[in-house]
């Protein structure tokens, strides 16, 4: 079968991948669409260290082909979105409703794939850049067939992360002021999360003027290109500032743009050894810096919620898909993503 692999030097599209059958508590999914996320590029660039060879992709949707023993919530033929959380469901963090903190779901890649007899790792417990993949049952969330799979694919990472950061981690409330630094796929979803939450002013910050139109579509009330312009709009600062780029200089700007009792939420991914700084005295007025993994989400709950919001017309999915690419055009999709020409490119099988 076809898929995108990374051998530690360069990615390539191959047609001779194999995947094992699902075991107990697992699901085999035929992938129809998978979004190209910057986390995939970060593996290629070495920003996210990961063992190789690996089958890339982690933002997918498709149709269940087979289930292992003990799986009852999905059946062959069901449409599903895939999460990256292969959480155990039994540890203290899972029991508290914090599956993103499950220690059994972080840094434990499996090797369900093989090529010419060599085992390959899965990425983010998912590997959606393959025609078929095997995931834990908890990662497969059923969806209505009315949602196009090219749009549904984006729920599993970009939407869960961005919308979840606003609703779950920051808990944006009605009337709050919000600043979003970087309006790529994650930033757009933070914007619409803030809109759904009822924020009164939502300022998008990006140096690319072409991003103003989509930013406003997703919820921005203002669009500027510098931190100084934000200060002109919000002289006292903002209640919430989301850094969606992964640059230490922008992290500092996020902290400096906070109002009293404000919180900076870090979503962008800088290099693993990057260090950021801030003025300690600026934090005493009840300001906070919050990390955020995967939108602090509970995928079985949140994916169903976001699917319902989509059907109500309150959450945008179709508009996130700038362009679709057959998987053979992976290199073109990467070039467009690096060039900032797409909010999200989606690979199709």
Automatic annotation (TrEMBL):
GO cellular component terms, semicolon-separated: cytosol
Keyword list, A-Z: Metal-binding, NAD, Oxidoreductase, Zinc
Domain Enoyl reductase (ER): 12-347
Cofactor: Zn(2+)
Stored Pfam families: ADH_N, ADH_zinc_N
GO molecular function per UniProt: S-(hydroxymethyl)glutathione dehydrogenase [NAD(P)+] activity; zinc ion binding
Signal peptide residue numbers: none
Protein name in UniProt: S-(Hydroxymethyl)glutathione dehydrogenase / alcohol dehydrogenase
Organism encoding this protein: Actinacidiphila glaucinigra
